[in-house]
Amino acid sequence: MSTATPTTQLIAAHGWAGDSRAWQPWAEGAAARGWAFSATERGYGQLTPQQPSWMPQAEERVVVGHSLGPHLLPPQVWEQATCAVWLASFAAFVPEGRAGRSTRAALQVMGQRLAAGDTTALLRDFFREAAAPQPPSALPMGPLEQGITALGQQRLLEDLQLLELTAGLPMGYPTAARALIVEAADDRIVQPSSRAALRALLPQAELWSLEPAGHCLLDPELPERVLGWIADGQP
Description:
single chain, 235 residues, alpha/beta, Rossmann fold, six-stranded parallel beta sheet, 6 strands
């Protein structure tokens, strides 16, 4: 492993109801390349919320975001990014037309369940759909294993509302950044039209469609493949 001062830094952002522990394979792969790696943490469970920032010496600044993750990053992170990896993500979660009406209605029901304190059952339902076609047991450790705090429940509700309001690329997004979109062919969370809308906004992006793969992209080889793609594009 290189001991040189890292000139490549990755900031990873997990999505709704996730936590930073899911990035462990990515952190290990980055470290093996001598890269710096840090991850956001929303703090839905017992982990302390964290929002990383770029190191001054970082020349390649790569954002890796899953699902809602890219929309949870502040503009100052995006403004300095040189590369973006979109994992089972979207520009607008709620699509237009009939599909959008059903998606919005589903989000409202989820919000009602959260507000009523039905958090654990709701998240189990969500994780089952997010993991499919694999079983939920294939998922990495997440907030449910430690228990959702009262503050975490409030953050889940606030981020669910943000999910409904997403529209377009995140504020500060550098449109000249190199980009990779990784789609899950069997995604039960993000509508096909929402995936298509992201592709339309980033026509220069390289596209990977994984099959079979659900929303959580539970392919153990994916971190190394993506890190290799990042490395291949560097000077």
